[in-house]
Amino acid sequence: MIARPQSNLLAATLAEQGTTILSVWSDRLKKSGALASGRIREAELQTQCRTVLDLLTPAVKDGVDAAQPAFAPLRDFLADLSRSRAVQGFTPSETATFVFSLKQPLFEAVSGTKGADPTDVMRTTWDVTQLVDALGLQTIETFQKSREETIIRQQREIAELSTPVVKLWDGVLALPLIGTLDSQRTQVVMENLLESIVSESAEIAIIDITGVPTVDTLTAQHLLKTVSAARLMGADCIISGIRPQIAQTMVHLGVELNVVSKATLADAFALALKRVGRTVVAVKARELPAS
Amino acid sequence: MDRIPILKLGSALLVTIQVDMHDRLATALQEDLTEKIVSARAKGVLIDISALEIVDSFIGRMLDHIAAISRMLDAETVVVGMRPAVAITLVELGLSLSGVKTALNVERGMDLIRRRLIETEAADGAGDE
After folding, report:
1. Rounded Cα–Cα distance for residues B30 and B65 (Å)
2. Any CB–CB contact under 8 A between B93 and chain A?
3. Which residue intervals define the domain STAS in the entry (chain B) (predicted)?
4. Euclidean distance between the first and final Cα of chain A, in Å?
5. Residue A238 is inside which H or E element, if any?
6. Which residues of chain A does B83 touch, with a Cβ-Cβ cutoff of 8 Å?
7. A130, burial (CB in 10 Å: exposed 0-12, middle 13-18, buried 19+)
8. Between B14 and A67, where is the model more confident?
9. How distant, in Å, are the alpha carbons of A65, A87, A144 from that of A139?
């Protein structure tokens, strides 16, 4: 954008009436309930307002295009601000209001400039609108982006947390599955299980699906894939924890799991111990240590 | 053309694949193994693929074929030492090698063959009486 003389009206207004604009702006913010949530202190809000104005004043000297390099420090500051607000739990409109509420004090200051050409005032008002809109939109975008980052991070953590491989006995592994089994998670589960089969030199893996809310044809296919892969590595799989309703649904759907399945993890473990040549027996009464 | 060595261990044959399998090598192995099973009167075939990082559908099918052939010649095939990545690839390719027995390592594979020998001997003995 070409630097037009009317930009200088804005620059001049900001330089001359900076203090007034600041106080009007922070008053408006306070009235609109920016402090009501208690997430931010008054002094902090004041500092943020002052920093925005301090960065805005030199930036508007050469034009009002928010994409210009002159606005870089202001853009960075607003990005930081919205990121920290996203973490603090502000709503998107609260964050946007912070920037958009700058409009009115600026309009008032521009129109109140003595001896200004009315056309000039009009143009400057329009420029201010565009500038503040651009800055506000950018703030929202950063806000959204940082929220998305949080969601992605949490998804990854959930995926990692929910696929532990537990060693039950020498050569016996258990894989308690919790949550919906989609193809992406199946991949993670499969890799974890196969790596553990190698490292623990396991013969039997028990896949417990007590925590899987629904089993449809796709989930069943994923389970069977995992079982086949484990078999290729030389380990047998037992599926346990199929809930009564799920068993009914699976039969109605025509899903068949052609693998050994047991109702509970305990049953599966008993079978696994039997296969590795071990058994659990009750200690005889006389062998119990006297207590 | 280099060939994959086939070692005789008692009544079992041990094949350790150390090099990358290309298709012609695989075909040659299949032929050699078939002849060796007959000539050595082997009851078990152990194929160690722990060094193989890539197993494509051709090699996968070849393993299936070897298993079917040796079953016809009264020998059991055990594939041992498959890597996790290879197992996942084969499953994704839709090859579950359902006709092949598997074991984690050579030792376990040997146990499997030995157990099978004892079982068949016992069954044969029972049949004689």
Report:
1. 8
2. no
3. 1-113
4. 90
5. strand A236-240
6. 198
7. middle
8. B14
9. 16, 14, 9
The pLDDT of residue A6: 47
Q: Is A195 on the interface with B (CB under 8 A)?
A: yes
Interchain pair A225, B92: CB under 8 A: yes
Residue A194 near chain B (CB below 8 Å): yes
All residues of chain B having their beta carbon less than 8 Å from the beta carbon of residue A228 are 91, 96
| Residue A185 C-alpha, separation from nearest chain B C-alpha, in angstroms | 14
- The pLDDT of residue A287 is 66
Complete domains list, chain A, with CATH: 5-154 (1.10.490.10), 166-275 (3.30.750.24)
Predicted pLDDT of residue A285: 66
Domain boundaries, chain B: 6-128
Cβ neighbours of A274 (radius 10 Å): 12
Question: CATH topology for B6-128?
Answer: Transcription Regulator spoIIAA (3.30.750)
**Residues A233, B82: C-beta atoms closer than 8 Å:** yes
Interface mutation vs chain A, best among B96, B97, B113, most A CBs within 10 Å: B96
Would you say residue B110 has pLDDT above 80?
Answer: yes
Q: Is there a contact between A191 and B90 if contact means CB atoms under 8 Å apart?
A: no
CB contact under 8 A, A195 and B109: no
Residue B47 near chain A (CB below 8 Å): no
Closest residue in A to B89 (Cα) is A229
Inter-chain residue contact B102 with A202, CB threshold 8 Å: no
pTM: 0.65
Q: What angle is formed at CA B109 by the lines to CA B104 and CA B113, rounded to 5 degrees?
A: 155
Q: CB of B60 within 8 Å of any CB in chain A?
A: no
Would you call B104 and A230 a contact, using CB atoms and an 8 Å cutoff? no
Tens of each residue's pLDDT in chain A, 291 residues: 444 444 578 888 888 888 888 888 888 888 877 777 777 788 888 888 888 888 888 888 777 777 788 888 888 888 888 888 888 888 888 888 888 888 888 888 888 877 778 888 888 888 888 888 988 888 888 888 888 998 999 888 887 777 788 999 999 999 998 888 887 888 888 889 999 999 999 999 999 998 888 888 888 888 888 999 999 999 999 999 988 888 888 888 887 777 889 999 999 999 999 999 988 888 876 666 655
Q: Read out DSSP for B96-119?
A: --TTSEEESSHHHHHHHHHHHHHH
